[in-house]
Design a protein that fits this description.
- The chain folds into four domains: 152 residues, Lyase, Ornithine Decarboxylase, Chain A, domain 1, CATH 2.40.37.10; 167 residues, TIM Barrel (Alpha-Beta Barrel); 82 residues, Methane Monooxygenase Hydroxylase, Chain G, domain 1 (Up-down Bundle), CATH 1.20.58.930; 45 residues.
- Helix content is 41%, strand content 16%.
- The protein is globular and about 100 Å long.
- The two termini are 31 Å apart.
- It binds pyridoxal-5'-phosphate (PLP).
- Pyridoxal-5'-phosphate (PLP) binds next to helix 11.
Length: 608
Amino acid sequence: MPYGLDIWGDDNFFISDGKVNINTKSSPSLLEITEEVRKKGIRGPLLLRFPHLVVKQIDKLYAHFNRAIRENSYTGSFNAVFPLKVNHYPQLVDTIVDYGRKYGYGLEAGSKAELVIAMAKTPIGSPITVNGFKDLEMVTLGFIAAQIGHDITLTIEGLGELESIIEVASSCKMKIPNIGIRIRLHSSGSGAWAKSAGVDAKFGLTATELLEAIELLRKHSMLDRFTMLHFHIGSQMEEITPLKKALREAGNIYAELKMMGTDNLRSINIGGGLAIEYAQHASMRLRNYSIDEFTNDVVFLLREIMDAKSVEHPDIFTESGRFIAASHAVLIAPVLELFSHDYQEHSLKFKSVNPPLIEELRDLNRLLNTKNSIEYLHDALDHMESLFTLFDLGYIDLQDRSNAEILVHQIIKKSLYLSQNNPTPELEKLQERLQERYLVNSSFFQSIPDYWGLGQHFPVMPLDRLDLPAIRAASLWDITCDSDGEIQFQPNAPLYLHDIDLDKEEYFLAFFNVGAYQETLGMNHNLFTHPNVCTVTIDDSGFEIVQTDESENILSILKNTGYDDSEILNRLKNNLLESPFTTEKEKNDTLQKLELYLHQNGYLRTTN
Ligand SMILES: *Cc1c(COP(=O)(O)O)cnc(C)c1O
C-alpha cells in the first residue's frame, strides 16, 4: 500500500478515491475534515484528535490481556493505568477516564501537577500509581488522595522516599496509601529509551535496598501497606527479549518476597514500553512482536515462575502510554512552497534567435517519450554542462541560462515520470540529487520534537492524489529558521511526493502516530506555539468537530513569553499614528492591518 500504510496504519485508515479515509463508520476523508476546519478561517498546522482510536487501543489492551489470562488459566487480574506524561491534555485524558471507567482504567502520575490531575480525574475505585522522585509534599498529596478514598499506590524509587512516607504517616492520622517498590533490574532495556533499567539506571532499588526497605516497613508496622512490585524497562521496547528477561527477574523477586512473608504484596507492575510501529518501509520495521505475543509472554512467564515456587499468581498492572495514545492524533501541515517552483514551463522566455544548444534542449523536451527518455536525458545533462561553460565564458546571457535550467528540469521530471515503472540506478541517484524541497507550514520542533531530539521517524503521506504517481524525491522543511527543521530524503527509506502547482491547488501532508509525547515535549522554537487542535468524532452519518483549540495569537504568545502585550500593541500603534502618512485613510487601514495580524496565530498564511 502507498506510503507503507499497511505497515504503520493498523487498519485505522484506508485509501479510496485517491484520499486517506478514516476507517470507521461513515469513514470521512482527512481532507474533508481539514477543509471543514479551514472553512472557519483557521490557518496553519492542524492537529486532529480521534477519540475512537483511543477507545480502540484501550479495548485492545484489555481484550488481549484478558484473553491471555483465560488461555493460561491465570488466577490474577489485569489492571492498567495511563501515564499522564505521555499526553496531559484534557481532551485526551477525559476520553481515557470516561471510556476507561468500565474497565477500572486509572492514571499514573510522575510529578505533583500530574498527581493533582490524577486525583481530580480518576474515578474512585480505579487505581492511581505514582512514580518519579517525590518530596514530603508530594508524599503528603498521596496521603490526601488515599484519605479521599482513592486506590493509590506510591511507588518508591529509593529508600529516602520510604522514609518520607513513614514520616508523614507518623505525623498525621490520614489513611496511608499503598506502597509500591520499583526494583532495579540487572537486565536492561533496549532502544533509544533504555536508561530506565539496568545496573546504571536512574530509578529503582537494588536487591540490598529492597531487603532494607522490607526491614524498615516491618519495623514501623507498615509492611501490610506494601502491595506492588514495579519495574519499567523503557519506552518503545522494540524487541521482546529484554522484556522476557526483565519478567523472569522481577517475577522471581516477587516470589521471593512472598515467601519472606510480605502477605499483602499482590501486584506486579510491568511499567510501559509497548511499542508502536512508525516505519513506512518493510525493511525499516521497528517492532518485532505483536500485542498477542506480548500479552502471552507476560502472563505465561509470570504463571510459570509463580507455579514453580507455589506462589499465588499476582495481579498484573501495566502503564503503557505510547500504545494507547500514539495513533489518536494526526498532524496536518499545508505545503507552502516547492523550492524548484521557478522551473515551470510557463516561465520560459525564448528569444527570436536562441543559442543552438537551447534549441536542441527545446527539441529534446518536445520529443521525449518512453523509448528515448534515458538517451534524451543524458543528452540534456550533457548540454547543460556545456551551457554553463558557455555562460562562464560570456557567450550566453542570463536569460539563456534561465531557459536552459528550466528546460533541463522539465526533461528530468518528464523522464523520471516516463520511467517510473523501471527506474535505473542512475535515475534513482539523479532523483536523490535533484530532490524537491517541500516547505511545510509547521514547526518540527513544536509538533514532532522526537524527530529533532532522537531522529525518530513519523509516517507521512499526502491527504489526496493517492491514485496519481508521486515521483518527486522529497525532503521536508519546516518554517523555523533552523536548519535542523528539515527531514531529509533518505535513499534507503525514500519519500516521494507529487509535483504540484501551488498557485492552482492545495497540498497537505499528514504526519501520523504523533499522539504520544510530541505535544508535551514540543518547544516554542522561533515562538511557533502549538498547532490548531481539533477533536473529531465520527458516527454513521458523518463527523463532528467537537472541540477546537486554536493556535495562540501573536499577542498571547508574547504575553506567555513574559512581555507586556498591551504595552507592545500600544507602542506599535502610537508609533504608527505619529508617522507621516500621505492620507488619513492609509493610516487607518494600516492600523487595522496591524491589529488584525497581531491577533492571528504566528504560522504562515500565504497559501490562504
Ligand atoms: C514513561 C513511563 C511509562 C510509559 O511508557 P510507554 O512507553 O509510553 O508505554 C510507564 N511507566 C513509567 C514508570 C514511565 O516512566
